[in-house]
Amino acid sequence: MAKIDSRLSQLDVYMERAYQLAPNQQRTLKNYIKHNMIRPLGTYKKISKNMEPKIIKYAEKLKIPEYAKSPGIRTHVNEFLNHQTTQIKAAFHKKIIARVEKGHALDAYVKDVILPWHMSPRPVVAPRSIMARVALLSDIAEQKRKKLIKDFWSAVETKLRELEAKHGTNKQSDEWKQCDEEYIAADQAKYKNTVDAEFYNMDFDGETDQAFDFDTNGADDEAFGLDVTVN
């Protein structure tokens, strides 16, 4: 019996070392990273690390059941997540910078450029929280363009801590909703140019895969990590 257990253990080690994500698994995970990237996150540090509990919970629906069962395979997948998160975060940053430089209007920009990163079912009308976050990031990108700050992401973290100290951590509170509306109004008054969605074709792996639908697969709203209701 001990020999059998030993051989099974060795087999597990071999399988973990040989494990490779299939193309469809890679695509699904990258789409899930993108989906999380456009959320009104509390921090943009350790994005992939903060996604791990949800990925474990919804491993079957995310097409990587091995992630929840094998620590070794989880390590391999986490390395992929870390690398892709860095790449996607950089692409997201580029989209924000380009938007500020072109002065593109918020509503059309979010609809044509940001919402394609939303996993299905994609909202018809952009959530106000997403619009407000794009407005906040655009404001900081404008400060960076004017050389009023040195590092974009450091300034983002500082601003988020400042806003949380003022309004609390509950993004659904009246204080946060009022803050969101103020950012949206200021942005809409500033940027009004027509959006050319083709200009933002910076993705290295195409648009978000709309064939994958959490609702179809039976997950609850928590799987999204995002309130898709219009508020």
Fraction of residues in H or I helices: 55-70%
Q: What distance lies between the first and last C-alpha atoms, to the nearest angstrom?
A: 60 Å
Give the DSSP E fraction (strand runs of 2 or more residues): under 5%
Oligomer designation: single chain
What kind of sheet is the major sheet?
none
Mean pLDDT: 83
Number of strands: 0
Q: Which structural class do the helices and strands define?
A: mainly alpha
Rg, nearest Å: 20 Å
Poorly predicted tracts of residues: 4-11, 204-231
Shape: globular
Number of helices: 8
Instruction: Tell me the series of helices and strands, N- to C-terminal.
Output: HHHHHHHH
Number of domains: 1
What does this structure look like?
The protein is an all-alpha fold. The chain has one domain (15-202). The protein has helices at 2-18, 23-37, 47-57, 71-102, 106-114, 128-145, 152-167, 174-190. 26% of the residues are buried.
Structural descriptors:
231 residues, mainly alpha, 8 helices
Structural topology:
Layout: H1 2-18, H2 23-37, H3 47-57, H4 71-102, H5 106-114, H6 128-145, H7 152-167, H8 174-190
Please outline what is shown here:
With 231 residues, the protein is mainly α. It has 8 helices and no strands.
